[in-house]
Design a protein that fits this description.
The chain has 14 helices and eight strands. The chain is of the alpha/beta class. The strands form two sheets. Strands 3-2-1-4-5-6 form a six-stranded mixed sheet, with helices on both faces. A two-stranded antiparallel ribbon has the order 7-8. A hairpin with a 4-residue loop joins strand 7 and strand 8.
Length: about 325
């Protein structure tokens, strides 16, 4: 859980949710239920997403919740790289229907949604993290993807949803990310650009896997330092650092091999190409005005509104949970125990 500020006055908390990530996940996990809403339309992905978010709100007691949605009509990244995310299976029409309806459901409920033109939910998450830091808030990014790891910091963590729901999912902080990948959060994007991302059809630098990428960043500090060493000193620091580590651990010496791979034609261009595609916007206008009562996304929400909107999904247990969770004051406004 996010920790209070040092002066014991709790920071307000923003949950930023990658809605398409959760909808995809729950579409596949819950399709066997064939659950329909009161209009007879497919609703299992919508219900699964909402249920998981309600459980997250119950656990974190945030002051505001914002959902990022993908622009499904255009993509600046695909314009730049037509093969972006190529190879993914075509979306099931029933998933498409629920993706298209998700924004209307969340808006009707009184939660904030942002669909940035030509961009993705990842950009909303990144902008939410930046907004929270500027405004003195805590932020938890909720997603099943790794793209948001680069935004982890003192006041930003990532709840990466995996099998087992929120209680079985890791809340990644700077120290936990370091333990998991061997890189600090502010170098995660460089690490990912070296490694590549098969799910987005972005190959990594040839011959550079996760372990080597993490080792380079741990011992050279940054890829800027690595490229500078290759250009100005024939990669001697790269070779020395990797071979010294091999001597300590008894592993095979790979310094010269890695230097050759990084110096190969197209290696740096591949890294910089990936870095450009993987970088998220942090300057989106999220429309958050937390000091204006009634602003979309602020909690608590009128219980009658919650009852009406969530009730349309036609699962009473979820409606009851929603009324309790969304109508409860945030943790930052509760009296100290």
């Amino acid at each position: 859980m996010p920790q209070p500020a040092e002066d014991d006055a709790p920071r307000r908390l923003l949950l930023a949710v990658d809605a398409p990530s959760l909808l995809h996940r729950h579409h596949h996990a819950r399709a066997h239920t064939r659950h329909l809403d009161r209009s007879g339309r497919p609703a299992w992905a919508l219900h699964g997403m909402l249920r998981q978010i309600l459980e997250s709100i119950d656990a974190f007691a945030p002051d505001a919740v914002i959902f990022g949605l993908d622009d499904r009509t255009s993509s600046l990244r695909r314009d730049f790289y037509p093969a972006y995310k190529a190879g993914r299976a075509e979306k099931d029409p029933e998933l498409v229907d629920q993706l298209d309806r998700s924004g209307a459901l969340l808006n009707a409920l009184g939660l904030a949604t942002v669909t940035p033109p030509g961009l993705e939910a990842d950009d909303v998450n990144a902008s939410a993290a930046a907004w929270a830091v500027r405004e003195g808030w805590q932020c938890v990014l909720i997603t099943s993807d790794r793209d948001s790891f680069a935004h982890i910091g003192e006041h930003v963590s990532v709840l990466r949803l995996i099998d087992g729901g929120i209680h079985g999912s890791p809340l990644l902080t700077p120290s936990r990310l370091q333990a998991l990948y061997g890189v600090p959060a502010d170098r995660y994007l460089e690490f990912a650009a070296l490694r590549g991302d098969a799910s987005d059809n972005l190959p990594g630098v040839n011959g550079i896997g996760e372990k080597t990428a993490a080792t380079l960043l741990a011992h050279l500090g940054s890829m800027q330092a690595v490229w500078a060493d290759l250009a100005e000193d024939d990669g001697r620091s790269v070779v020395a650092a990797l071979d010294a580590l091999a001597a300590e651990t008894g592993a095979r010496r790979i310094g010269n091999l890695v230097r050759t791979r990084l110096a190969a034609e197209g290696a740096r261009e591949r890294y910089e190409f990936n870095l450009r595609l993987m970088s998220s916007r942090t300057d989106l206008d999220l429309g958050l005005t937390p000091d204006v009562p009634g602003t979309p996304g602020l909690l608590p929400i009128d219980p009658a509104r919650v009852q009406r909107v969530v009730g349309h999904l036609d699962i009473q247990a979820t409606t009851d949970l929603a009324v309790r969770v969304l109508s409860t004051d945030p943790a930052s406004t509760r009296p100290a125990q």
